[in-house]
Here is the input.
Amino acid sequence: MDTIQFAVAAAVHAPSVHNTQPWRFGVGERHIDVFADAGRRLRVADPDGRELMISCGAALFTLRVALRYLGWLPHARLFPDSSRPALVARVSWDEDRIAADPYEREMYAAVTARHTHRGGFGAAPLPAGTIAALREEAAREGAMLRLVAAGDQRDALAAAVQAGEHALRLDGNRAAELADWVVAPDSPRRDGIPPAAYPAEPAHTEPDFPGRDFAAGKGWGLAAPAAGERSPGAVCLLATSANEPADWVAAGQALQRVLLRAAACGVAAALHSQPLELPQLRDFIRVQLAARAHPQMIIRLGVTGQAGADTGSVRRPLGEVLL
Ligand SMILES: Cc1cc2nc3c(=O)[nH]c(=O)nc-3n(C[C@H](O)[C@H](O)[C@H](O)COP(=O)(O)O)c2cc1C
Here is the structure.
């Protein structure tokens, strides 16, 4: 496999909203272009393309990780052509190689090992120093990872996720859009959320950070996990100081950097974007819980006995994403 195929094969493992995989890759002699695929944007939930750009940012970071694994030194230019707003980034690399170090090899190994956790965590604390390390990873991509303190702040954020989840269920257009990305058992589809990736009944934590109701009463999904995993884990907000498309791409790169480092440390992550898709709730979180920085993702981090169990996520083949 050549450099470009190797790097794109890794990049498609990035997380994306509802596993929409809203990206395409253009190839040149010594560069790869990352394009946003607007046809895969969530028209109701994501009118501005914020979640689309976060997803593309995550794919961009994964490309960089794969290139480093091969020893190349990647350079990414965001939005290099103002007349082509779908061209999110051009990644090129120097002619010389420098072998990947152990940290870079671990980040690459986490690309396929990582997956989104949907549920609570056991009582075990995170390995010492995890939050400080992840905060640094986010900062390296120009984003902030804030730990939300247990007590009033965490309860208020849980209440915002609950309100968001209820509001999404009440809105028929949003519920229909979500249903479009929930894949039936035995479907040959290679995008969307398959039943092996979520519990049949949304899991509950204390305080409750409800998951999205992918099953929606159809009976699809995994059997309930063993009782006892009720902790929300370490609840964090990923935020940026501004809220333009380049900030969303930065948030996506930071998100994947945090998720890969966490996975490399044996820490699982659950993601919640429900309240961030609703302007009033998003603004409440920004003002009350994020010191007026722009919240881009709610991330719960923890240790789970389920690690490696729900590996049901699927991806489209390279032929569909390589231009
Ligand atoms: C912008 C964004 C928003 C997301 N929001 C949620 C969410 O609200 N709930 C959830 O369970 N997963 C969420 N995810 C995770 C995706 O569903 C997940 O990345 C995708 O299904 C692929 O699965 P994987 O991460 O296990 O590879 C989000 C991911 C991104 C990038």
